[in-house]
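Hi P.,

Sorry for the delay on this. The queue was packed all week, but I finally got your sequence through. Input first:
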Amino acid sequence: MNYRKDIEKCIKFIEDHIKENITIEEVANHSGYSLYHFCSVFSLCKGVAVMEYIRGRRLSFAAIELYG
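Then the structure:
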């Protein structure tokens, strides 16, 4: 399995839906993995939990919108 490619597709999904109220379940479904397996693979590849990653991206996006 090519986890890196699958996680990058999920990152794109997250970025495309960053303004929406997405859940871990939606992202895991997009990957085709079970929720448990997806969370493990994401943490292994990115070094951070899925929702922590999403929260950080939302904060970065908000800062850019505030300060242009």
